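Why does residue order matter? Because the sequence determines the fold. Keep that principle in mind as you read this record.
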Amino acid sequence: MCPMHSDAIATEHAARLAAVDSLLPGSTPFEAAENAVVLEVATGDSAASGLASRVQVDRDAPNAPWRALTEHRLDLQLAGPRPAGALDALLTRWDEHLRAVAEHGDTETAAIVPRASRDAAGAREMLHHGFAPLRVVAVRPAQRMIPATPLGTPGVKIRRAEPGDLETAVALGMELHSYDAQYGTVNWRTGVEDILAKDLAEQLNRPEPPLWIAELYGRPLGMVSVQHPGETGWISDRVAAARVGYLSWLAVAEAARSSGVGTALATHAHHVLDEEGADVVLLHHAAANPLSTPFWYAQGYRPLWTYWQRRPAVR
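Structure:
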């Protein structure tokens, strides 16, 4: 029996995280639900609570290229002076649960633990349990003044995309997807191109597509896509901000890398979202990607959440 009540764990966890990152949202006690159970452990004067859930998607679902088909997720709250020890005990308890519910050795299953990026407690214990920091949700506060290539980059023209750009957008999307697949954040499966083409076609057929094309001396070699405040309910609860924008895509053809195209596209997207009153902009990137990680942080982003993953969920 955990000696610390779940309300107290949630309150202390929220206070601890608020001390390291003011953009993190608060915490409320976990509640069991369909496909979700609450796990609690105590280690001396410390305690941990975790919400263990499972999400399954079809292979041809719109979000399938970006995730394992079955994800086992552990959201956690840590309290007490020794949170790392409590986390270690909670991960052990979760492993027992996974061995009973997950397919052993199935590479289409993943165990995922989202953690506040600035919460260093327990990082070693995560590694000992076979997890690696795979994906980051990064945040950029609005109208942040960052030295960057200006909108008038020589040779670069940015225009709103239109339906006739579908072939270009799909080719850029597939090049980006292929590159990111090396780092385990996306999946290279049969049918990925069809899923991307359908999603991009839907964007391009909107009255004002939220997608822009960058031409370098007349050649379409880059694109950026955003989700406006009001469209980001699926992720807005991950940050303490009222109006949240999301940068969905930024792809630059290999031939145009280091030309200023990427910076011009990012600057344009930020200008659009700042004009719409976004308090922050969020995006996902692969933690190990040697191109995107330094690029995004040069644009004013910083890590907010780090998603640790083990795949398969149970070896």
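The radius of gyration is 21 Å.
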